[in-house]
Amino acid sequence: MMGSENQGFEEAHLYASKEEMENLVLDEPLNDNKSHSNYRSALSSLADTHHPLSPPVAATPADSDPLLAPPSYSDFGNPSIHDNSYLDPPSYADVTFSPFDGDTGNDINGIESPSKSSDNSGSLSRSPSSSSEYIKITVSNPQKEQETSNSLVPGGNTYVTYLITTRTNIPEFGASEFSVRRRFRDIVTLSDRLAESYRGYFVPPRPDKNVVESQVMQKQEFVEQRRVALEKYLRRLADHPVIRKSDELKVFLQVQGKLPLPTSTDVASRMLDGAAKLPKQLFGESAVAPHEIVQPAKGGRDLLRLFKELRQSMANDWGGSKPPVVEEDKEFLERKEKMHELEQQLSNASQQAESLVKAQQDMGETMGELGLAFIKLTKFENEEAMFNSQRVRAADMKGLATAAVKASRFYRELNAQTVKHLDTFHEYLGLMLSVNGAFSDRSSALLTVQTLISELDSLHSRAEKLESASSKIFGGDKSRIHKLEELKETIRVTEDAKNVAIREYERIKGLMLDDDGI
Amino acid sequence: MITVRSVSGSSQSPRSPSSQPFLSVSVTDPVKLGNGVQAYISYRVITKTNFPEYQGPEKIVIRRYSDFVWLRDRLFEKYKGIFIPPLPEKSAVEKFRFSAEFIEMRRQALDIFVNRIASHQELQQSEDLRTFLQADEEMMERLRSHETGIFKKKPADLMQIFKDVQSRVSDVVLGKEKPVEESNPEYEKLKNYVFELENHLAEAQKHAYRLVKRHRELGQSLSDFGKAAKLLGACEGNALGKAFSELGAKSETLSIKLQKEAHQLLMSFEEPLKDYVRAVQSIKATIAERANAFRQQCELAETIKLKEINLDKLMLTRSDKVGEAEIEYKELKAASEEATNRFETIVRLMNEEIVRFQEQKTVDMGIAFHEFAKGQARLANGIADAWRSLLPKLEVCSS
């Protein structure tokens, strides 16, 4: 019915390609070894370069397929955290979580579990080439527990705790294997404290609180989703060369019972505290504690400082004159622009990756449904067969159905792999958040410096005025002299604060130089 | 593509085209005519034949969809018992009516329709077919408009319709709720088979259509993803940027492959399945006709019995109405015989048709499945090749 020669030729070609495809599968173990050595050598060269983003994407083929691999954060140097950081897990993360049919479940799980829990890359040791230190963290065993204290409601408040097991050979930990139970709130505390302690670094963002999802999703699914997210987060922290040695993390991983880190207070109570302090500040005792200077004004209790910095930033934007200290590093500004553009494209690519995954999933599903429909048809024709032609047709249909069902399974496998690899985009987006966090740390530090300098200027001119005024009165004006002395004291304190702020700003600048410089 | 080229005398294969009788038709060249709401598509119908009844070896006419409908209806009337090949549906959504894809699907279906008629031993002899293939456009239009509307049937048939209604009403009145049906277990089995088959096929066709859509969606995703990858590459420099734009370009290439395959899938797999569904629906129409014929036969038999009794009564009473009654009786007898003949013809034809149908469908489906598998294998290979060819370019980047 169709040109039979063409048909034969094309089919022969198809069968030949089939062999090729099988050969490709056989080759994979070889690729595996090759890629490992690539990885190791790439890693050692990375330790020298400290380039934040470019090499790792290309240079870390940790999996058997040397196309893409999850990046090593440790290679970037010093990620920083932002306490507002959040990143919705990609919607196609559901693909990894959705329950598969019983008979395909084993296949898929067999392939997925490496990426889920044990994580190939983890065992390949992402730590810098300098040592063979490792920390391996596992999150498991979620359990419901009851809020013991002051529960007005009988049956009380329940929450979920997760078992966090650590295996390490880092001496500072004092032990090689230990476990502890933590709840999500503890993670929030940990992440906030790290943000404060490691300002200016690229600290990985913590998992989202997902308040809406926790109500809407099935409890089991939600808990599992959170468990995975927590594990990923803790592993990233452990990979970070500076943070992994932090006290906060150590305490979090080791100390039994209640987490001994100061909890973050919510916005409302902070505002209340700030409001309580305000009158004292306005009436003259505006001493800004140096240790607070090194934190941004926004998250703190000092309302007055907040107002002043806000005023300063408006003066920067709208005022005629240039502020005393500016972001002069042109290279930094350029890089910031580039980062912004990169972030946009990453976000776009991540979105498209999501729809690609969805399209593949749909394809697999529909293919499977088609196969099932034909299986039903086959059964029907066989049962009702009155003619031989029907049996022949039924046999053909069965062939088609079986192939369709197999194809459907392959699509699922494909998707699992795709999700694993394209998830990289999403992780990079998370990194972008950290980078943005670091950038805004730098900006807010700069703003603090600018504000303090402006304030010093105005304090100095007030002092001058007072001096000239009181010098006109012979013998001095007792009250004015008193005021002058107070003012001089304030100037001294503010001068100190200014110096601390400048040091902080320079420190953050220095961190970035380390990261960005090639 | 499924094309059914006609072979006259189904048991013989043509030796040399010139000596064996043949009738070959093709439906081509869809052209949009008219404006606005009145717009329609016309097709060129080319006939090549050496049948003596035809005007010449080749004839080209212009036909539109409603002409095909006319042909189908005439054949359905005249050849009860034969499964008349199905027509594609009347147009669906307005917007879709003139899309290139819809037009091509319809053209293919119409081509198959005419060719099936032309290769059917009995149907190919039809005078209506000859008219359809040869009449000029004005004549065709006259015939077409004459047949439209509820007055499709000739007056004699109208009477029959009234009689049918009448008898059905009397049945209900007399408490006979179900119309009389054959009590033939094999036939029952066939009827059940046909009805269930339609359900199964409709489901398979639904999934096939969805699969076409999925191919299109995947193609679109790959295209969007490719573009995004290229833009991302533009942000990076040198080797990495190049890698991304290679990735993006490959992705876009694959998108095109997928769209092509989607179209193939639609024409070579989904359409044949839909055609199968339509064919089964046509069988259902024939089943209804058979039921009608059976009922007529039964009723006439009943009526005759009554008339016989009446006639005997009249003869006994030596009524002068005897003559009339005898004439009536004779007419009824003739009608009854005719009805019985009609019914038995239908039964005979159906038995032949069902064998032919099953064999034809096995062939059609075999081809459709083959095309499906070929298309998917081709696509999978294409995709694998594309990604494989990308690997060396990426490895350069990662070393």
Automatic annotation (TrEMBL), chain A:
Entry-linked Pfam families: PX, Vps5
Coiled-coil regions, chain positions: 332-359, 449-504
PROSITE patterns named among the record's database cross-references: PX
Keyword Signal set for record: no
Full protein name: Sorting nexin 2A isoform X2
Biased composition (Polar residues): 36-47
Organism name: Ziziphus jujuba (Chinese jujube)
Gene this protein is translated from: LOC107411553
Record domain PX: where: 140-259
InterPro entries per the UniProt record, alphabetical: AH/BAR_dom_sf, PX_dom, PX_dom_sf, SNX2A/B, Vps5_C
From TrEMBL, chain B:
CDD domains registered for this protein in UniProt: BAR_SNX, PX_SNX1_2_like
SMART domains membership: PX
Domain PX: from-to ranges: 21-140
Alphabetical list of Pfam families matching this protein: PX (PF00787), Vps5 (PF09325)
Biased composition (Low complexity): 1-20
Sequence segments annotated as region (Disordered): 1-22
Gene3D superfamilies linked to this entry: Arfaptin homology (AH) domain/BAR domain (1.20.1270.60), Phox-like domain (3.30.1520.10)
Stated name of the protein: Sorting nexin 1 isoform X3
